[in-house]
Amino acid sequence: MNLFNKTKDNNKENNNMDKNIDEIKIDEMKIEYSESVLLDVSGLSVSFNQYVKNLKQVELNVIHDLNLTVKKGEIVAVVGSSGSGKSLLAHAILGILPSNAVVSGNILYNGELLNDKRKKQLRGREITFIPQSVNYLDPLMKVGKQVQIGMDKKDASKNQKKLFSRYGLKTKDEVKYPFELSGGMLRRVLISTSIRPEANLIIADEPTPGLHPEALEETKNQIKELANQGKGVIMITHDIHSALDIADKIAVFYAGSTLEVALVSDFEGEGENLRHPYTKALWKSLPQNGFKVTEGSQPMANKLPSGCLYSPRCENTCSICKDERPKMREIRNGMVRCNNAT
Ligand SMILES: Nc1ncnc2c1ncn2[C@@H]1O[C@H](COP(=O)(O)OP(=O)(O)OP(=O)(O)O)[C@@H](O)[C@H]1O
Ligand code: NI
């Protein structure tokens, strides 16, 4: 069944009064759709309803107008400061945001517009997740059983054993609880929970923190292997070196938005091929590029500047940057959200 029929059929099932409107929207999206695109996130916004003083409710907008595309067989690294929205992007794709989150925008997977019900069906099967912390493992469940979750019951034990052997875990480890394993072993258990034959998209949230060089190399190889099998990978990381080592492109997040999506090959020399001043600053802050520090810090979600999010720290800020938030545009095979980028 081709994409168009599939989405049309889904609409038929819903059969609501907005059917014509939905079909028109999907028609427009189909034009943009390319066979090699596995995931297309566009205009994603996430807000949280929060209670402040005097029981007043406010909406805190933590992700705004965020775009990201992942092709089949591609590793897309997502980098950016703490709090820039990297994990929330992962949680939005997986449909595991907390209930006070308000989400808008489109997430297309294999050309199909995902709603919460569909995300739940795909989660742990076609779209799998390696979470940021080993604390995501259930402390009261044996690790072997945790790896079997979501597997077909009749083959679960056999497949879990295969994964343990593949990732250097011993049979006797199956019956252990998380607290009985080392940090490195727990990371391998986490990776095992994400390996499913039907997985097409793997989202790894900080898969490499604190790993010793050998384990780091091993994890990077595991991720490359998944991409070589044609799976799409989103690798969220603070480790720009690892990102440059294995990714195809790098998405740079800042204060809940993508400022640039660049090819790995753009990160070279003085950063002259990079498009956004923030990406250039990140590149120059690396030890091998002189550790140059940029003044200021990422703005808080409740204190965002009205124009370009980076304008208070940018050397090239002009009056339009202070008034208007730049739109994402394509330049030299990359994407950038900057008025002055050429
Ligand atoms: N449940 C929530 N309610 C309110 N704000 C939240 C909630 N979860 C996350 N946030 C806020 O959203 C922003 C983005 O958080 P997120 O966890 O995605 O950051 P991150 O880029 O993954 O950071 P890190 O690199 O530290 O993991 C942060 O400012 C965070 O405080
Ligand atoms: Ni995070």
TrEMBL record:
Annotated GO MF terms: ABC-type nickel transporter activity; ATP binding; ATP hydrolysis activity
Source superkingdom: Bacteria
EC category name: translocase
Pfam families cross-referenced by the UniProt entry: ABC_tran, oligo_HPY
Protein's UniProt keywords contain Transport: yes
Keywords: ATP-binding, Cell membrane, Ion transport, Membrane, Nickel, Nickel transport, Nucleotide-binding, Translocase, Transport
GO BP field: peptide transport
Positions of the ABC transporter domain: 46-280
Main location: membrane
Complex formation: The complex is composed of two ATP-binding proteins (NikD and NikE), two transmembrane proteins (NikB and NikC) and a solute-binding protein (NikA).
NCBIfam families found in the cross-reference section: oligo_HPY
Protein name from the UniProt record: Nickel import system ATP-binding protein NikD
Lineage per the UniProt record: Bacteria, Bacillati, Bacillota, Clostridia, Peptostreptococcales
